[in-house]
User: What shape does this take?
Amino acid sequence: MCADLAKSQFYLQMYPLFMMNSLLYLACMENLSLQKSNANKTPIELAKSVLLIEASAVEALTQKLDGNFTKAVDLILQCQGRVVVSGMGKSGHIGNKIAATLASTGTPAFFMHPAEASHGDLGMITKDDVVIALSNSGESDEILTILPLLKRMGTKIISITGKKDSTLARQGDTHLDAEVAIEACPLGLAPTASTTAMLALGDALALAVLDQRGFSAEDFARSHPGGSIGRRLLIRIEDIMRKGNAVPSVNIEVSLKDALIEMSRKGLGMTAIVDGQNKPLGIFTDGDLRRAFENGIDINKTSIRDVMHANPQNIHPEQLAVEAVEIMEQRKITALLVVSQQGDLIGALNMHDLLIAKVV
Assistant: This one.
């Protein structure tokens, strides 16, 4: 207590504006109190405190959503150009992520650094664009500098700030309130809860637009062709199945021995059994072979008809490869026959093919 009193007296001598009960004084005392409350916390305790504060900040946003949010969604949906996201410092980093989320969910978007905008990059923005401007204080000089030019151009502005009475909040065509009660930083200084809230609000905006657009999983995959998401959503059975002579198949009248020769030749761990019209009647696998040996079956005297699995599971070539994975997992099998819409055998694949294609 004495230390606090001495510190406050020092500030009063050095800074005349630092008066008792002034906002500056109260803020400093609050920070001192916050530091004390965190001084004896373990790293785990402090981490829990941070997460709870940030979670509360995000939850509080649900009470702030109103017609302004709906208007923001409409502005983006009606945008004839691109969405340009801009912010300084930590808000800029959040803006980069929001722009990336918008772009990957069907809204052409990019991030523009507000300082660079004042030195020529503003030329990339047109009247057909929508600008999302982020600033916790709502008073970032770099953002405010370009605001008049954007408004003169006729560009629509969505402002996201932590101060609803700030300059940026007032100048936007619509404003999203991202105010938080406190920062999660033990010093009460570093942007933490405020940036988390801003990011969550940006995600909510992007996904609300996605939903209104009717953006599908296939649309999403087109924006991610190089990743696992794209592979799972874009690769079809016809892209990876064995075709032509690579497909193991034997007539239903052959012996088990002849079927084993075909299996060995094609190396797929199974063979299809077909009729004279190339319609699959059954399947015989390595597992079936082991069971046949356990039962003492003579491969020379046994017909494949007697040991095959009738009505084999199949899939169509235009289906997604990920559907083959689901079928195999549900049926506990490792291979599938591929048939045309007319029921003709046209291909085959096994789990190894799916692994090579990185669908699994």
